[in-house]
Every structure is written in structure tokens, then in C-alpha cells.
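Two proteins follow. First one:
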Amino acid sequence: MDKNGAAEESVKKHIVLVDNELKIIEHVIEETDWIVECLITINSKNKYSDNPRIKKIYAESDFLNNKCLKGFDYYDLNHLWHAQLRMENCFNRFLADYQIAKWNFYRGYALVKRIFNSKKIDLVIVKGFNHGYAWDRLLTDFATYKKINNYNVEDMLYNTRTVYNNYKQSLVEVNNDYKLDIKASLFYKEEYDGKRFGTDIWSWIYKLGYHFFGSLGVDAIKCIRYKDLGEDRMGVTILERIAQYKKIVKMKKFASAVSEKLDVQRKYICYMLHFEPEATVAGRSLMDSQIVAINMIASNLPKDWILYVKEHPSQYMVNRTNFYNYLYGVAVFKTKRFYKEISSIKNVRLLRSDISNKLVIQNCQAMATLSGTVAAEAVTFGKPVMVFSPERTIYSLSKGFYKIYSFEDCREAVKKIIGHEAIDYSDFNDVCQKYLIDFSDEKYGFKKAVESIKHDIMK
């Protein structure tokens, strides 16, 4: 405010926007006066290429292919080691190659540095999680290092998202126009066969290949048709993907062999494994080892209690359309050793993945997760929940949840669960209403996200 009480004119913001599907950009153009100094998306040539408010457009591939190290400075690396670890970890989803993973980080850093050096940047917005790419994790970590507000518009419950300010390390309040129906975001079923095919002869052949051999069948047919090995953007061939899939099939058989049926007569806590590799673990979670969480719970259980560990139902659906991008990484992120290590822990039992989550929750003494939807699902049954990576989630702001940040936190939580301490989730719906955006209508959702960011930077 000036001395006469009049509102000061807002300063025009110069922003970096990461919007792979061009879902946020239209709201930035229509509802703000911000200048987009850099738009990062799938293709650098798109319908916004000639917009005067968009100064530069990069494709995601520009970060993967960058070989110009102009501006490279060792000093910055002291502040970006965490981003480096996350990026190298992310790279393993697509290609397990130590040297190329490091090169991917350093050349990504060089391009990010040039982006921030070219213009004064006031704000960074990323549509989605920080998966661990140069164009999300490194970009936001660099902005935080430079003390610039930067946001992720990331998934939370089904058809909902949160807005998270990475610099302030806080969820952003949203102004919902109507009451959220949280129950509609729970116990949903993932659709695995959403691939659509055309009506020409090759589409029918692809459809037949998909029916019998999944996405690998489609890839194999394309390789025969075009007489190549079907290399993806990381250079992984169809032969490498088939080899990885064989490992996955063996892992699934092994995991099934060492899993057992649910015994509802036992006193148990159930830990629900997250799908890996995914950003809810590698991107959102501060502590991202599921074995650590399992070990901490089991170490504090009495002798007559057990810890069931249930695999994510989508873990082995990687030869289907929705999860095909993860086919290579699954065999890297979960191995026979992973399941053997879990099975070796005292009081732990692997639970069959085809058992209903509702049945598990109804009969448990408590549930546990890093940050999954199962925590919200357990609320509907009034069950205690231990959340091992609550930061960045609505669980961190609601009463009732046991937020685990240490071994001692876990010990105290288990002690209270055994003692049947009353659980108070009375503010959970209010927290959801305050921080979750309804994305059943994406246009509405992204509009609200931009509005929320506008309000947050004015504080």
C-alpha cells in the first residue's frame, strides 16, 4: 500500500513454465499479465510458438540432447547435489547406465543455468510432480537455490491435485467454488487397456498384437514393419525391453510364491507398497526407501502381531498401455532381492496383491504408507494410519495421522496403535477442501491452480 492507502500496482512477473501437455499455458495467457520467458513442453513448435508473451520455447528433448556447457560452474553443484541424486535415480527408470546418468545431470544443469542467466526469472511453475528430470527437479531446485518462488501442480488423490511451493516448503491454499466429494477419489480402479487403435489394416494388426502380447507386441510389429530395433529416446531397443520384461515375469512369479492369504484373525498392521518407479516415491518423498519403513514398523511390533506388506496392484501391469513407459525400470527398482529382504524381516509377511484393499483395511489394526491414497481410504473406516513421507501432502496438515519422521516417531505410533488410542480425523475433510483442487474437469482445475499461485505470490 502507498501512503494514501491505495493498492500498489502489481509488478509483472517473468516466469518459467513447464507444461508438457499445454494445459496451464492458456490460463497464464488469459488470466495474468505474466511474461513467459521460457516454456518447456513436448514439442518446441506448437500453437503458442508465435505468441509475443512467450519469449523462448524448449522441448524436453533439448535437455536430454544438450551438449553446450557454457556457464558450467562447479560452485552451483554444492547446492544441487540433492537434485543430482534424484536425477540419476530417475534416469534408472529408462536406462541403467551410470556414466550416461551423470552426463544427463550435468548437461541438464548447463541448460538450466543458461535459462536463469538469460533473463531475470521471478517465478517457476511445473505441471506435475518433480519426477527427477532436468526440466522439473533440477529447474525447481535451482530456483529454490536462487530464492525464487517455484511451484508444482501435482497429483494427490484420484482426480485431485495440490499446489506446492517448493521454496517455502508449503502447500498453497485454494479457493474451491464447491464442496469436494472426497469419497469419489477413493477405491478407484485403474484402467489398463485404454489404448485406441484406428480402422486401417495396420491398426487391426497392432490391435491383434496388443491382445496377445501387450504393448511389446505392438512394438515388435512396428519393428518388423519399419525394419529397425525400435529405439526409444534413451536408445533402449525392443530386444532390451523384452529382456527386461522376462525379468519382470520371473519377479512376479517369485513374489506370488512367497505371498500368502490374509488371516483376519491375526492382529496386523498392513503396509501398502507404492508402485515403483514413480514420482510419488522418488520425487515427492524425502525418505524414499520402502524397506526402511517396513523395517521400522516390524522392529516395534509385539511378538503376537504381524506386518502384512501388500504389493501395488499395478506393479506388474507394465506391458499395458497406461504403464508401458515403466517397463524397463520395474526390473531395476524391484528385484527378487527386494522381496527376499522384506521376507527376511521378523514379523513380516508378504500379502497376495489380488486381495481387496477394503477387506485389508476393514480388518487391520492400522495401515501404513509413504504417502499413498490408502491413507485417505483408511480414514473412511476410522483406522489409524502411519504416513512415512507426509511432507508435501494433505496428511501433514490433518489431525489423526501418525506422521513419521524418525524411528522414535514410529515407535510411539505403534505403541499408541497397540494401546487403541482414539483417532481424530475431524478436520480431514476441511483440510481437503482447503488444499485440494478438483481435477475431474481439467480446465477448471488448471484455472484454479493459476489463481492459487497468483494469490500465494501476493502474500
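Second one, unrelated to the first:
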Amino acid sequence: MDLIFKILFYLSGFIIVWAMIGYPLSLKFIGKVYKRRKIEKDYSYKPSVTVMVVAHNEEKVIQDKLNNILGLNYPKGKIEFLIASDNSTDKTNEIVRNFIEQNPDRNIRLYEVKSRKGKTNAQNEAQKTVTTEYLVMTDANSIMDKESVKELMATFTSEDIAYVSGRLSIINQESSDVSSAEASYWDSDMTIREIEGRIQTITAGNGALYACRTVDYYEFNPIECHDSAMPPLYAVQGKRAIANHDAIAYEKAGEVIEDEFGRKVRMNRIILKYILPDARILNIFKYKWFSYFYFGHRTCRYLLWISHFLVLISNCLLISESWFYLMAFVGQVMFYLLALVRAIIKTNNKYLTLIYYYCVTISAQWVGVYNILTGKAKPFWEKAESTR
């Protein structure tokens, strides 16, 4: 029995350490080995593009978003704008209609989804009306850099590139310790994605800004999200999903832990499937670096919830074995106690905040798994007001 506990302890411990420390460090080393490999760009490439904005009750931000996308630096004759309103019940649709009337010289359309089924369903429905060569997706509360579409299109330099993700820049990282922790997470994750993309393909994108060929669009189940679903799909098809971090979208992170926790629960609404979405990913001889990238960046991270539980329980049962197991158990308990202290006293200490934020992230994974197992996972969610 002790052997089983030891296997669980070391295997779970490896997953945690590899996901959070080992894999990022290995990517830095691999990036240096492949330092001459760069993302190519062709700024003369200007295909027809539809910028799609999905909105549900976004009356607070939709006017700013509309003004933002009209200011994009891209040939007027080659860019269209499509607002997919996911059964909005506030003034969102009215604001969009008025904006369309005030700008008759621009190709702006409103697509009204009659039954709210979430962002992915709205994209699926609205995409069927698109006739341009490319689709650029962006969120209603994200402000796009004026060069972002030009940057995204310039990166489609070969037929095997099916997806390009932009960079999400957090603009309120100094507003609270929560938004600061989220900004730190994104900064580190962007570094990883940049290396993955120039070597072969990224494992996930971000919903604030990304693009794909219209012919490559896939109608996913509404419970899924493009961030997690698109890159692995294209990789299995032998295509590439890459990151161009010169294409930028600016967005607010949640400023209170309740908002950020809710967002992470929503992100984990299909976590069990994405531990390994397709068994073919394991074929390292065919998918090469992508197999390595997905295991380290996705599979291990999606297993953190159960790994932390198993490493704690198995460690507890092995305490009497040696001083090493005793120290490991004390270390784990201290880690969680520090998170609890941060939750109670709400200090701004950077290190306590990072520990607390990490524990909140793991808790959100557990809630996501619970929602899946109890049938409570849903394709739509209530937006975080502090991000507006």
C-alpha cells in the first residue's frame, strides 16, 4: 500500500512542479536553441476581413467598442464589422442600430441571436453570414490597438497557418492586488506562447483578440470556447496556430477576487475534456513539439486540482516514513495557511497575494469539475462588472 501512496505522491508532485516551474523553464531553454526561428510577416497582405464582436448586455462598453473598431488602420473597402448580440435585453442593440445609422459609409451589421446560448453559439450563428476571407474575433470590453488587424493579417504568411492570437494587455494591473496577479500570470503565459508559436504551434489563444480563415472556421459545441478548442483542432489537422504579440488588445482584469474567481470557473467549464481533447496529440512522432507543448502547458495545468489533492493525501499517509515526507507535508500545510492568512487579513504583500491567487485558481478548477459532474456547467456566464 505504501508503494501506491509513493507513486501517487511523486506522480502528482511531478505534475504540479512541471506545470508551474519545469515546463516554463524548459521553454526558455528551447526558445534559446531556436532563437533564430522568428514569426514571419507580410504587411502587403491585406485580405478581406470581418471583425466580429460578441456582446450580451454590453450597454456600458459597446459605444466605446464601436468607436474603437472604426478607428482600426485597415483599408476601408476590405474590412467589415459584425456585432453578434447574444440575446441582449438591455440597450446594446439600440446603441448598435443608432451607430449603424450614424455611419452609413461603413459596412457594419448587427446579428441578433434570438436564444441566449453563450459566446460560442453566437459566433457559430453569426459566422454563417460572413463572406470575407478572414474573421477577427474580439470581446466587447476589449479595446483593439489600431494596428491589430493589420498585424494579424500580416502573420498569415503560409497556408498551414490557420489561427493567429494577439496579445492581451491588462490596463488596470495597478488597481488592485487581484488585477496585478492576473497581469503577472498573463505576462508569463505570453512568453510561453510566443516560444511555442514560433517553434510550431500554440496550445491555446485568448478571447480578446484572434483571427482565423473563414474557410477554417469550425462550429464547436456551444459549451466549448475558441480559446481552448481552436489551436488543438488545427494542430491535429496538421496546421499551425501561432501568436503575434504585436497585435494587441487592452482589457481590464477583475479587480475583486469574486469576479476573477467567477471568470476562472467559467474557463474551467469543460476542463475534463481538455486534459486530453484528442488522443492523437500523444503521437509525438507525428505532432512533434506540439505533443510536448500540450502536455506541459495544458494537460498538467488541467490536472492541478486533482494533483494537489492527491499529493496532500498521499503525503499525509507517508509522514511516518521519513523526515522528507514530514517536511513536505508541513510545507504544503504552510502554503495553504499562507493563502488563508492572505484571505483574512487582505494584505498587499506580493508573495502572499500570488499564493492566494494560485489557490483561488485551483479552487476554481474544483468548482468547474463539480459543475461538469453535476450537470451545472453552462455555455454562458454573468460578466464581471469590474472588467467593464
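SUMMARY FIELD: Strands lie at 49-55, 79-86, 108-113, 134-139, 143-144, 161-170, 209-213, 240-251. Residues 49-255 form a domain with the Spore Coat Polysaccharide Biosynthesis Protein SpsA; Chain A fold (CATH 3.90.550.10).
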